[in-house]
């Protein structure tokens, strides 16, 4: 198998998590000499893919909220994908989207040597050859194989972290907390970065801390954040950042949305407060809290200043807790998941 395809999108509503993990895997395939193509339809995602130096096969995009029309669009998309498989000679196709059905997979499957799915939800028995779920939740989800030959790669051992999170320097846990990081994903649809920033700046004890705010490609609230920065010199906005691990390593505490960023923070050893922004994040955040990898803030819509500020101050005062969270996080993941996956697939 020499040619690999990734069917994935990114945008304001679905975020950038799917595309970032596919890019991580794609980079490793490219390093090993594979030819890689992305099949994508949304503008924001296509820009990100091209910035990373990959070929994009652009699919037609028609936005719809009608269920019947949505199923028709999925059928039409499957036909487009089949055409692309034949046109570009793709040997293996990975799909990373929640907008899938059993029929969708079955229509595509006969036209490609191997089909893979990158999953979080275990919605049904997926008719695929390779299934990847690198979440901490995966090993508790009772996956069923569609066929005896199906390869299942489950758990943090197969998490799709980028190469920048391998071989990181040891994080220093400072007794005095000076810097906090806020990261809310690639699009921040609920304006959480602004809300959290305001809560911290309005508190007398915390307002002078250096606050690193990560701004994603799909943010619509950039102007609001820039206005706050103009009035507060201790607020630093990081846009289009190449090495987010640098910010994670220098920040004493992180406040983060659930999702793949949590594994990045664990790899860095950054003590983290996590909130849930989507259904697929709920089990992950709760399980990571339960196992001692982070502290949960619950759902984003229940997050108030009293709860957030209390936990930030607990982290600030409890040096031993921050050391414990650092060590626990570093033990969870070593960011070699993509290497393991590519090595295994090369033997199929």
Plain-language structure description:
- It contains 12 helices and 13 strands.
- The longest helix has 22 residues, at 67-88.
- It is of the alpha/beta class.
- α4 links the parallel β4 (92-96) and β5 (114-118).
- The chain has helices at 17-31, 43-51, 67-88, 102-108, 192-201, 222-231, 244-250, 261-268, 279-290, 305-317, 319-332, 337-345; strands spanning 3-8, 35-40, 55-58, 92-96, 114-118, 130-133, 151-154, 179-183, 210-215, 235-239, 253-257, 272-276, 295-299.
- It folds into 2 domains: 3-161 and 335-345, Rossmann fold, CATH 3.40.50; 165-332, 3-Layer(aba) Sandwich (Rossmann fold).
- It has a 7-stranded parallel β-sheet with strand order 3-2-1-4-5-6-7, sandwiched between helices. The protein has a 6-stranded parallel β-sheet with strand order 10-9-8-11-12-13, with helices on both faces.
Topology, pairings included?
Elements: E1 3-8, H1 17-31, E2 35-40, H2 43-51, E3 55-58, H3 67-88, E4 92-96, H4 102-108, E5 114-118, E6 130-133, E7 151-154, E8 179-183, H5 192-201, E9 210-215, H6 222-231, E10 235-239, H7 244-250, E11 253-257, H8 261-268, E12 272-276, H9 279-290, E13 295-299, H10 305-317, H11 319-332, H12 337-345
Parallel strand pairs: 1-2, 1-4, 2-3, 4-5, 5-6, 6-7, 8-9, 8-11, 9-10, 11-12, 12-13
Helix pairs in contact: 1-12, 3-4, 8-11
């Amino acid at each position: 198998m020499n040619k690999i395809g990734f069917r994935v999108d990114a945008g304001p509503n679905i975020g950038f998590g799917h595309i970032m993990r596919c890019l991580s895997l794609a980079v490793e395939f490219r390093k090993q000499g594979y030819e890689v193509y992305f099949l994508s339809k949304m503008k924001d995602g296509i820009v990100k893919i091209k910035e990373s130096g990959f070929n994009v096969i652009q699919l037609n995009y028609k936005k719809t909220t009608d269920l019947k029309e949505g199923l028709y669009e999925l059928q039409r998309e499957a036909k487009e994908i089949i055409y692309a498989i034949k046109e570009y000679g793709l040997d293996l196709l990975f799909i990373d989207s929640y907008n899938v059905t059993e029929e969708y997979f079955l229509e595509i499957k006969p036209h490609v040597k191997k089909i893979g799915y990158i999953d979080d939800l275990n919605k049904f028995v997926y008719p695929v050859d390779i299934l990847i779920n690198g979440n901490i939740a995966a090993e508790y989800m009772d996956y069923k194989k569609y066929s005896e030959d199906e390869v299942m790669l489950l758990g943090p051992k197969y998490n799709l972290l980028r190469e920048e999170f391998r071989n990181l320097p040891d994080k220093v846990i400072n007794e005095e907390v000076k810097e906090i990081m806020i990261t809310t994903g690639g699009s921040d649809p609920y304006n959480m970065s602004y809300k959290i920033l305001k809560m911290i700046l309005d508190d007398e004890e915390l307002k002078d801390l250096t606050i690193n705010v990560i701004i994603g490609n799909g943010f619509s609230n950039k102007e609001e954040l820039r206005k706050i920065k103009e009035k507060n010199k201790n607020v630093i906005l990081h846009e289009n950042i190449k090495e987010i691990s640098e910010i994670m390593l220098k920040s004493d505490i992180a406040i983060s949305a659930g999702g793949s960023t949590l594994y990045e923070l664990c790899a860095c050893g950054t003590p983290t407060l996590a909130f849930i922004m989507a259904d697929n994040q709920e089990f992950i955040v709760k399980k990571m809290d339960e196992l001692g990898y982070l502290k949960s803030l619950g759902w984003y819509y229940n997050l108030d200043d009293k709860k957030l500020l209390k936990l930030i101050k607990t982290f600030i005062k409890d040096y031993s807790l921050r050391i414990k969270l650092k060590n626990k996080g570093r033990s969870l993941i070593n960011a070699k998941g993509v290497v393991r996956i590519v090595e295994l697939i090369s033997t199929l």
